[in-house]
Amino acid sequence: xxxxxxxxxxxxxxxxxxxxxxxxxxxxxxxxxxxxxxxxxxxxxxxxxxxxxxxxxxxxxxxxxxxxxxxxxxxxxxxxxxxxxxxxxxxxxxxxxxxxxxxxxxxxxxxxxxxxxxxxxxxxxxxxxxxxxxxxxxxxxxxxxxxxxxxxxxxxxxxxxxxxxxxxxxxxxxxxxxxxxxxxxxxxxxxxxxxxxxxxxxxxxxxxxxxxxxxxxxxxxxxxxxxxxxxxxxxxxxxxxxxxxxxxxxxxxxxxxxxxxxxxxxxxxxxxxxxxxxxxxxxxxxxxxxxxxxxxxxxxxxxxxxxxxxxxxxxxxxxxxxxxxxxxxxxxxxxxxxxxxxxxxxxxxxxxxxxxxxxxxxxxxxxxxxxxxxxxxxxxxxxxxxxxxxxxxxxxxxxxxxx
Length: 403
Ligand code: PLP
What we know:
By secondary structure, the protein is an alpha/beta fold. It has helices spanning about 15-25, 40-55, 70-85, 105-115, 135-140, 165-170, 190-195, 235, 245-280, 310-320, 340, 345-350, 365-385; strands spanning about 5, 65-70, 95-100, 120-125, 145-150, 175-180, 200-205, 215-220, 285-290, 300-305, 320, 355.
């Protein structure tokens, strides 16, 4: 059966060049990067090259990059690290953090854990288009605010937030600013100076690198406490023996992303637009969720009214097409997506929303195939939906192969 992968926001396939770059550091160069002998220095030098490659992708300085185990750790390190480092050190009470209602669970649940320890958190709303208003962030700032954390691109909708404007607000009020850029790095240009952020999280597996490795950009002069206690690795920012092969993979993936950024983005958005436009034009009661313009070139979130989302994902999978109902880590949850609820969708609307996320390896044939099988899946699920009133529809549903 043909297999088409349209779930690249969950994770991306490892690029063969990345695999090739990593292999020697799994087999031959196995030294501990903290050892002073030749084996150790081989590993150390590879990590420093990787640090330069990652830094270049986001216009940072290499010494501002701390390798971590992924986006989740980088997000947690920022939130806990800043709150704990702010005076009085180690205390949570009397400190205030601002995040948005559409953050990934890595930020959302970290913020909730901070709240349980005594910090105060403001959850800023988003407009129905899935975009945060910087004026709402500014209005939430108070003398106790120690951190603003707003994601760059949303993982479910793909909407890109006005980080530059929020960065200006944060600077004016002298508040630290973190962005979770896990979904944007490697897909659209990301420049830490232009964005005006003090910290930025990224994760290699979202841009054809390996899983289990990411990085936190920490602007020089930013004081945060490490999440873990241990040795002096990563300039005291993240203890633990370095994941050498992982870092090498992240570096190589960053280098490839840097080279492919413009042309890759254009060709992916052309495929995404064709998929989306064809669906919206030919499938009844299909609506785009989130802002059309201000979003990643890779992502399309479409609501198919009266279609049960999980059922759609399973039926498409049986035809060989992988897509999702939202964040991979929330799949299986009975609760509707917090992101879709935040943009004002009802539970039923949220449950009938599907995320298609494309990547570098998708082809025109992939899109043709997805478009060929999709209408029949929608039609079938609607035919078994108790809510779908055929009489409300005055033109026939499109049929397979005729989109
Ligand atoms: N932040 C966002 C926006 C994400 O999409 C993800 C992964 O889905 C994460 C954080 C977590 O990253 P990781 O899987 O590297 O822990």
